[in-house]
């Protein structure tokens, strides 16, 4: 019986989770998403093709694997259809192997409209969301007025719930000539896709337990990253879900013993899209170099990603709140040409050295990173597959990270492709 592994991003997202999940999916039977929505952009390069997935679990690329979307996800049903079509055109069928929890809340066109309106209202303090309607959809879920996947198959209930939306969101809908505010059109379009969605419905919690009892192994795919967690990330500059291991338990309806191993994905430097504090940000030539060489442009929105040095303070926090035991370190190759590489080991705040991330954002804005300098390796690691082949300085860099985080390195990624990986 294979292990059930959970893959969690340890920074501000885009650590390379898609590639790692695709890689680990080979040895899993089932791949499950538990939170987030189409704000995610997970890139997989397989058989020379590039796939960017937003909702469908990254395991779908492997034929014969079963994929589940849990109740903790907020699902844009129209986006899902587009993604399934895209996959179909690439020769990958989701039929009979993609399932969605009946309790999954939907992201509907008006959520995206409201996301945009609210970001504008925040003006100077906007979050820089992906405008995929994620925050407004989670808000409805918590407010107990969300439309759930099962509502798509009960015409009368769907109509009643949408009528309620009209009343609750009158301030956005009345006088709006945006088509996304037109509830009749939303209803009509949902009814159109309802038959396509029907075969996907499942009791995900029940199914996962059943698979476990049959000895199947499950891979849990996190989206976003620990520092974007709604509770313990850089609030309010976060997403609206629990991106941590805890999110998998509630987002799929599983107990803690269902997870055998926690793999934290850590990019060898740091990136962030959107607003919010980023203590180790580089706005200089090296920052631009990391952005260019690393191809740091959002997989969902195309926005340039902010770049900076690796930050052990936020990583310690991420590892603790997730119980990370194994590390997958990605994009090592992006550092190949850099002369001197810094790692932030502590922050200085009001003259004091601190090693733990402050939860008060007022403090995080004001910290000054304290760096340790490492000599670069100045040679290509691209595509390397053996740890022993890595230059000594690269090994030193990796060993330091693992030692500081008290975790073992299980994978090192040296390029975007499946094969460009060191399995330790
Ligand atoms: P995710 O959201 O965590 O799945 O990450 P993204 O897919 O948004 O961003 C990661 C980007 O880095 C993608 O373009 C990947 O193809 C690419 N990538 C992943 N691993 C590596 C690596 O080891 N080296 C390089 N150069 N690129 C990588
Ligand atoms: P993956 O899974 C990077 C960021 C947005 C914004 C904040 C809130 O590809 O790593 P939201 O639309 O969720 O309300 O935006 O969170 N964000 C991400 N950044 N990778 C992601 O996903 C992200 N999903 C959301 O940029 O700052
Ligand atoms: Mg991404």
Structural description of this entry:
It is a single chain. The protein has 424 residues and is α/β, with parallel strands linked by helices. It has 3 domains: 5-104 and 200-261, Adenylosuccinate Synthetase, subunit A, domain 1 (Adenylosuccinate Synthetase, Chain A, domain 1, 3-Layer(aba) Sandwich); 105-197, Adenylosuccinate Synthetase, subunit A, domain 2 (Orthogonal Bundle); 266-423, Adenylosuccinate Synthetase, subunit A, domain 3 (Adenylosuccinate Synthetase, Chain A, domain 3, Alpha-Beta Complex). 32% of the residues lie in helices and 21% in strands. It is built from 13 helices and 20 strands. The chain has helices at residues 17-25, 77-89, 109-122, 134-142, 155-168, 170-173, 183-197, 204-213, 245-252, 285-293, 312-322, 361-366, 392-405; strands spanning 5-9, 30-33, 42-46, 49-53, 66-69, 74-75, 98-101, 105-106, 201-202, 218-221, 261-267, 270-272, 306-308, 310-311, 326-330, 340-349, 352-354, 368-375, 408-413, 421-423. The strands form 5 sheets. Strands 9-7-5-2-10-1-11-15-19-20 form a 10-stranded mixed sheet, sandwiched between helices. Strands 14, 16, 17 and 18 form a 4-stranded mixed sheet that branches. α3 (109-122) packs across α4 (134-142). The radius of gyration is 21 Å and the shape is globular. The relative contact order is 0.15. The model has no long low-confidence stretch (mean pLDDT 97). Guanosine-5'-diphosphate binds at residues 9, 13-19, 41-43, 45, 295, 299, 330-331, 333-334, 413-416.
């Amino acid at each position: 019986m294979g292990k059930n592994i959970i893959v969690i991003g340890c920074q501000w997202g885009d650590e390379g989770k898609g590639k790692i999940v695709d890689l680990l999916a080979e040895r899993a039977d089932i791949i499950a998403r538990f939170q987030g929505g189409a704000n995610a952009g997970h890139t997989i390069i397989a058989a020379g093709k590039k796939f960017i997935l937003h909702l469908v679990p990254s395991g779908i690329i492997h034929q014969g694997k079963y994929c589940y979307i849990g109740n903790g996800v907020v699902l844009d049903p129209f986006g899902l259809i587009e993604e399934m079509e895209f996959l179909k055109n690439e020769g990958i069928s989701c039929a009979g192997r993609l399932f969605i929890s009946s309790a999954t809340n939907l992201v509907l066109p008006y959520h995206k409209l409201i996301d945009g309106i609210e970001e504008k209202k925040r003006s100077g303090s906007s979050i820089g969301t992906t405008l995929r309607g994620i925050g407004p959809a989670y808000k409805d879920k918590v407010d107990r007025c969300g439309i759930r996947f099962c509502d798509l198959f009960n015409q009368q209930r769907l109509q009643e719930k949408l009528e309620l939306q009209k009343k609750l969101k009158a301030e956005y809908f009345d006088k709006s000539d945006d088509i996304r505010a037109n509830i009749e059109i939303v209803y009509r379009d949902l009814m159109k896709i309802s038959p396509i969605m029907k075969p996907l419905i499942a009791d995900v919690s029940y199914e996962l337990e059943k698979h476990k009892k049959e000895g199947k192994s499950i891979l849990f795919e996190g989206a976003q990253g620990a520092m974007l967690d709604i509770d313990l990330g850089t609030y309010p500059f976060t997403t609206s879900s629990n991106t941590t291991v805890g999110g998998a338990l509630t987002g799929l309806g599983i107990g803690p013993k269902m997870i055998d191993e926690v793999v934290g994905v850590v990019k060898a430097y740091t990136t962030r899209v959107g607003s919010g504090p980023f203590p180790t940000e580089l706005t200089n030539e090296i920052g631009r170099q990391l952005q260019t060489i690393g191809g740091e442009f959002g997989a969902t929105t195309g926005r340039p990603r902010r770049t900076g040095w690796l930050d052990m303070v936020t990583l310690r926090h991420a590892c603790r709140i997730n119980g990370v035991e194994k590390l997958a370190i990605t994009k090592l190759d992006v550092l190949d040409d850099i002369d001197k590489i810094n790692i932030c080991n502590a922050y200085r705040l009001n003259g004091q050295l601190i090693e733990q991330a402050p939860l008060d954002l007022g403090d995080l804005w004001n910290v000054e990173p304290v760096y340790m300098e490492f000599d670069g390796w100045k040679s290509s690691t691209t595509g390397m597959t053996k740890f022993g082949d890595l230059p000594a300085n690269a090994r030193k860099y990796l060993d330091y990270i693992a030692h500081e985080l008290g975790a073992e390195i299980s994978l090192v990624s040296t390029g975007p492709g499946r094969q460009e990986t060191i399995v330790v």
